[in-house]
Structures are given as structure tokens and as C-alpha cells.
Amino acid sequence: MEITLNNPKPFKSKREKPYWLFTLFASTFLIAAPVLFILSHLFMPFSDSWAHLFDTVLSDYIFNSIALMLGVGIGTLMLGVGAAWLTAMCEFPGRKFFAWAFLLPLAMPAYIIAYTYTGILDFAGPVQSTLREVFNWAYGDYYFPNVRSLGGAICMLTLVLYPYVYMLVRLALSEQSTAILEASRILGKTSWQSLFSVALPMARPAIVAGITLALMETLADYGTVEFFGVSTFTTGIFRTWYGLGDLQTAAQLCSFLLLFVFFLIILEKKSRNKLRFHQNKSVKKLSKINLTKGRAATAVFFAGSLVAVGFFIPAIQLLFWTLDYWKNVWDADFINLLFNSFFLAATSASVCALMAIFLAYSKREFKNKAAHTSAGIAGIGYAVPGTVIAIGVLIPAAWLDNHLDYLSTLYLDMPIGLLFSGSMVILVFAYLVRFLSISLNTMDSGLSAIKPGLDESARSLGASKKNVLTKIHIPILKTSVLTAFLLVFVEVMKELPTTLILRPFNFNTLAVKTYELASDERLLDAALPALCIVMISLIPILFVSKSIVIDKAKHE
Amino acid sequence: MLYFIRIYTLLALLALFNTQSFGSEVNVYSARQEALIKPLLDEFTKKTNIKVNLVTGKGDALLTRLVNEGRNSPADVLLTVDAGRLHRAQESDVLQPIKDERINGLIPKNLRSIDNMWFGLSIRARVIMFASDRVNESELESYESLSDEKWKGRICIRSSSNIYNQSLVAGMIAQNGLEKTEAWLQKFTDNFARKPTGGDRDQIKSVAAGECDIAVSNSYYLGHMLNSSDLKQRAAAEQVTLFWPNQKDRGTHINISGAGVTKHSKNIENAKTLIAFLANDESQRWYADKNNEFPIRDNVEVSPTLDAWGPFIADQMNVSQLGKFNADAIKAMDRAGWK
Fold it and tell me: Can you identify the CATH homologous superfamily of domain B125-253+319-336?
């Protein structure tokens, strides 16, 4: 009772914050607008192109997309969970190194790893040439799998996407209650049995979340599948737009893709809701399974090959090509590319992080469903191919600009031209739409560590609002904010089509340069900008993975 | 740290908004990639003192941008690497007719639109390449004859998503009719050595490697490979021979890269000057040397590589037809199962 007296309005009614709520709805509407714009095409008439698509290629698109998703889903599941389990639950030589090295492929854009492996594995590449020389074979004497195929695309995407599963599952495994696992072992289950019957089922929400991220990336991928000649739903969207010149049908195709993604997300949410395991945070560290000789060797071999194939081999190949061909690409403008890429990535990442903080706090503050749904909607852009986001931003922005110009000319006699179109604002906004969900997820999980009860207890003990913020929130959230920033930074470094379509005059980035060279079939010349993207992306990833490892060390 | 963040925020805010004001300048939306246009534009600026602002991207994306920006679009010139996109731009009503004696004198009639909406700036020929140890040149004749059964399992060509293949088929539809072309496509796709994959260079490499005997590719890719600093590429290129198809009838299929002045251009005179500059002898030679494309006029001297391939008879059909039949071409290719 005393507490309440000291603090006349301790539990302020949530309804008393209309401005906050308004800002929340307005900003989420703004962020969702490009996606809504694309979806609105569903209500427009369906043109003849549909009949043609139905009769010919649509079944191919659907089949290939589903096959790709299945392949990548299974691949990331096995690699991601395997890697997470090894580093979180087992002890073997090099475990600490692999714990962060497993994250390295995050620095590799899928299209760059695809270019690189094509160069290494195609007929004229070093692998096949060596085979031919050693065995004195000619063309047709031997079988060699074709990289440029559906299977190849599955491999490439799996290699760069498994870290998402790894990251989330590892975190979940290391936070699992030791008591349950120990109970399982005491009750006579072997450690393997405990893995499959206890640890993994409990980590299922994390596994599902990781795979959902990977699948969303897979659906949005254009560069890899286009390069490999696999006709998926996404390449079909562009074929319809570019080839048939039918933007409306392309947008409708894309809307169906979006509906499918909504379905995936709902499924993921459902599976998470059902499986909310209430665990006590482990105080005691689970003793790791010590792998014996043979098993340790297998573990090192698995981990070593995964990291080699996913990162070191392509990175070293890029390095060799760069050493041979950098002169073809290097000029005075190259420094500009570096600067532009960095600037764009840093700005977009800051904006995403700020927005994520705002949304995460809003979700925490307002318990009502509308607020939660609206924050959820803001994250939908992640599954949308970059080009589609770009179009979803470009057309409404141009419309807005032209109307603003009209009004300003009419009433103020002052033509303002295009205010947003062709500016950096629009580009950064597009990245906010596309990548907000990454930073939002990170912030959400960071903030969930601060139970609302904690605030209330602190306030009731006399801490001021400011104190609660600086003494509790900021220290706990620092890592989350940093992680949110860095993850988006890496994504923007790697992203291509959005920049390509929306950029201002005389603004070029590393990704654009890589793409232009590669699309002109100058893969070797593309190595220098590609390597730069990988190296720059590597810095934040090392940072993030280090912070994960260090956090762990503190626990231990 | 905080100090840096403040400075950074300030700089970012300054850089973010549209602060451009375009005076004696010309603004270019270019589907031709930067490396193959910027050096010429720099030269232009040096000669005329007109500043050029450049955005590159895919043709259709640039066109979408142009259409939606409407009357306030900053773009003065739209540059594309195929006639189909220029035609589409014209259909979308974003170009304006240009009457300019200078330009008309430089650019042959069949390489510009009938109403002078756009102008061809370089010629790209799609040719047949073959392995001379497995194919006798006398066996080759035209694109049409590639449907012959003797080529079963011997032809490499890239995906039908590629604009050069779309234009090739569009040209055939324009001249041979849709029905005939469909029948041809059915047989032609049956002759593929493998599922279409990779780019034009990959088709050439596959001929060199022995995976197929014939490839259809743009000529300049062979030119690039012959002049490549990569020895393997050069070796591969030297194993294939270039053949000019349809020399006895309509001529080899050509496409153009070209440009038009936008409808709402604020720098029309500068735009015209730029187009005339890109069509002059010097620029034409640059295209030939740098990208092995053919000049739009016969009198321009070309590189030894192009010279060695000899003169050829090019299809005289107006290239705007390629744009007109592009969608038909794609649908026909889809029906024929050309991936």
C-alpha cells in the first residue's frame, strides 16, 4: 500500500498515450505502404498474360520454387542445427573457433558465392581442368554435376543461409535448462537420445524461426536463380515484367507470393504460440559432451568442411581473381564506391535500429492486439524481393511527389519538382521497409529479457524513469541495438536490386558494380568489388560473433 | 564517439535530400552499364563543358521510373541496349520526336524510329559460332536452317529470358510470320544440346569444350574473349569460328543500343548535342574498340578483331519491329518449352 502512496500513478493506463499510439500506427502504415501498394494489384483486372502463364510456365515456377524451398529448408535445418548442437553441447578441439566461424558465410551474398562456384566448378574451371589433366579425360568421358541447376541453387543458398538457423538455435540450446537435460540423461537416455527427444523439441521455436528467415530469403532471391537459369516464381515475376512488359500481372504474381509468405509467417507464429516452454534460465552450465577421438575427428571434419565450403574456398578464390584482375576495375572512382556503400549501409542500419527500438517499446507498452499486429505488419517487407520493394516505393513516391509539386505550384506558386523520388531518402526508406524485421526481431528478443515487472519493481523502489532507462534498459539493450544495427548493415552492403532501381544520379555502390560486371559476363573482373563487399561485411559479423562468444564466456 | 555520431548525422541529413539543381547539364538514364558509357560521357563533358549526370540500371526499371516521375522527371536522355525497350518507351509516351539535321545525317534511317523518337547508337549482331573440326561451314546457312534434324543435340543457346534471344525471335515473327516461327521454334528447341544455361560466353565456351557444335551468341562476346587477358578464355575463343547467318536472304539479325530524348526534358539542346556526340566517328570507333560492337555507319574504321570477321549483310528491317513483337516472341518461346 505504501508503495502506491509514494507513487500516485504507478501503473499509468495505456490509453493515456494517444500520441504514441498515433505515431505507431502512422509509421507502420508508412512502412507497410509499399507492400500494400503491390497487394492492391490483386483487385485490378487480370490480363490475358495470366492465361498464357497458366498454359505454359506457371507450373514450372511453382514447382521450382517449392523444390528450392524444400531443399534449402532441409539443408539449413541439418547444417544449422548440427553446427549449433556441436558448438553448444559438445566439446571438441577448435570448438571456440568454429563457434564464430560458422557465422562467416553471412558475409557472402548468395549471388557472389554462386558466381564464384560457377567459376571454380564449370567445365573450364580449375577443378574439372585438373581432373581432365590427371586422368587424361576429354569432354563426355566423365560425369560432373552441373552447378548451374536447381540442385546447385539449393546448395549455394543453403551455404549462405544456414547461419540464420545456427545463430538462433545455438542461442536457444545454450539457454536451455540443464535440469531437464540432466534429468533425461539420469533417466537412462543417452546424450544422443536426449538431443532428439528433449533438447531439439524444446528448441523447436528457434529452429522454425531460423528456417522461416532462410526461406523468406530464398523466396526473395533473384540473383542466384537467375544466374543459374532456374525459373522460380521470383524470376517469373521479372520475366513477366521485363519480357511481357506487363507490370500489372507481375505485381499480381508478386501479390500471390506475398500471400504465401503471410501464410508461412502465420504458421510460424502458430507453432511458436503452441510451444512456449517456460524454462528457468540455467544457472548451472550444462556439462558438455566430450567427444572421443573418432567422434571429435568427425566433428572437426564436418565443421571444417562447412566453414571451408561456405566461406574460405570462395573467399580465397575471389582473392586470387582479385590479385590477377584488379587492374581492370580499379580506378579513382573505386574509393567512391567504397564510401557510398558504407554510407548507405550505415545510414539504413541506423534508421532501422531506431525504428526497431520504437516498435519494440511500443509492443511492450501496449498490450492491445492492434498495436502488436501493426508492429508485426511493419516487418513484412523482408520476404519481398528487393526489386518489388523498389517498385512498391517508386510508384507511390513519384505519385506523391507530383501531387505535392502540383499543390505547391498551384497555391504557393513555387514548383518544387520531385522532392523524394531519386533522392537518398527514398532509398533508405526502401531499406527500412525491406530489413526492418531483422532489427525488430533482434530488439524484441533483447527487450524480452527485461520483464515489465522489472520496471515496476524498480520504479516502486523509488528509481526515476530516467534511472530505469540508464541503469536497466540501456546496459541490457546495448548488445541488441548493436546487433540490430550490424545485421542490417551487412544486408544493405549485400543488397543489390533496390539500390539499382532507386539510386540518385551519379551514385554507385560495390554491389551495383559487381552486378554490372557479372551481368556483362566479366566474372573475374567482378572479383574486386565482390571481395570488398565480403571484407566489409565481415567486420560487423566478427563483431557480433565475438560478442556472442564473449557473452558466453562471462556465463561460464 | 558521440561527436562522430553528431557529425555523421549532420552529413547524412545533408546528403539524403534532393539538393540537386540541374543547370547546364544533361541527365541520363542508361541501361548501358557504367563502364561502357561513363568514359564517353566524360569525354563529352571535356569537349562541351556540359555536365552529365548518370544513373544506370535495367531498361525496364529505368522506364518505370521515367513513366512514374512524369512531367517532373529530371531525365533528359534514355539510353537502352536494345530496340525493344526503346519501342516500349515510345509506347509509354515518355519520348519526344527530335528533328535535328546533325543527328539525322549521322544515323541511318533503318536504325532510328520512323518518327525520330529514338536513335540507334551501335549495332550488335547475333551470329552463329561453330567448332570447325566438327562442323563444315557449308552446312550452315541461316537461323531458320538450325531447325534441321541434323543439328539434333548439337546446339547451345542461352535462356529465352534473355533479351537478345527475344529480339531474334521477334525479328523472325516480324518477317516470317507467327505460325512459321512457332513451327521453327518447336524443332529448334528439340535440337538443343542441353537445358539453356549461362550467358553468351558460356555457350561459346561449351562449343570450345565440345559440349555442343554450334552456339548462337552476340558477336562482341567472341570479340571480348579473343582480346581477354584470361588465357583460357582466349584459347576457347580461338577454337570457334564465326558465321554470318542469312547472308543469302534477309541478312544477319541485328539489334541496336540507342537513345531518345525524354518528353519532359528540360535540357533538350544539351540532350541533342549528347546524342550527336555519341553518333560521331570518334565515339563510334570507341564502341568498336572497347566493346566490339559495330558502328552505325560503314565508313567508320573498326578494330582488327571486327575487321577480321569481314563485312556482313545486316537485316535491313526497321529495328522498331523487334519491340513490337517482343511479347509475342516470349509467348511463342514459352509454348515451345524454351526455358
Answer: Periplasmic binding protein-like II (3.40.190.10)
